[in-house]
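Would you kindly consider the sequence and fold I have copied below?
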Amino acid sequence: MLNPDLKLNEHIFDENVEMVPTRNGFGDGLEKLGEINPNVVVLTADLEESTKCEKFAEKYPDRFFECGVAEQNMAAIAAGLGISGKIAFIASYATFSPGKNWETIRTTIIYNQSNVKIAGHHSGIVTGPDGATHQATEDIAITRAWPGISIIVPCDALEAKKATIASVDINTPVYLRFTRDKTPTMTTEQTPFALGKIQTFWTSQKPQVTIFGTGHLLYYALLAATELEKEGTNVFVANVSTIKPLDEKALIDLTSGSQAVVTVEDHQITGGLGGAIAELLAKTKPTPIEFVGLKDTFAESGSPKDLIEKYGLGKESIKQAVKKVISRKNS
């Protein structure tokens, strides 16, 4: 059942569930931050509208910087602002930032622990028709290796707004990951959000598997949970919105109850959420684990719905992973 303590969307399983891109939540969060924190500045690389910075730019033009098609320059400028008392948000497509400007971010922002928030947009295969060149599916891996960075992947637009606002409380670099396409709204304004904390969205008695999901694919994990329960298989579904640092205590506690894990993410299996969890469990509590994510491949152009199914990220694939890991556990 949905966790009543989290005040989740009551219409989450309706056919007409509200669909909003998580990038919209970023724009709403920036607008709010502009009101409450005069030190917040925003930079973009010729993508003001696509990254939803336009409201901030209109209201606070003196704190908005259009850097043009120059992601490396954008990162370097932000690094200077971030060590000078400002809180700098840089926004571009994730394949360009932190993709194209990876080394510049590493050297100017990460190495100096500058107070910069890197907003990577159009992440995952739900970028859809733009194809592999614009579908960022390695961005968690390339940022997770940086020392001292926090990585936040909101599950929906409302959580994206809360995460954007909360990120200013971290005085070191942060990577915020957003989607282009509309995705289901799972939370409400009343759903609590805490940086670095795992939340159990779906609970059950005597769970046989714990599903750890991040981002919009958490919705498909919830769909899988409802069907699995009807079939007699109980699971937990946990929202891992902060991938680095991991909420290690909650992760180990949730795993102890089920003794089996499935991870779900719109990202390459290598280096993403699944890798982070596997690394932790290998050190603390070796556990059978299955991974739902991109399997060492690029995706092609197509509708987000079709791509999710083709590349094995949807409800049926999650159910299969659950059944497989139970079989491994029992053997």
In short: The radius of gyration is 19 Å.
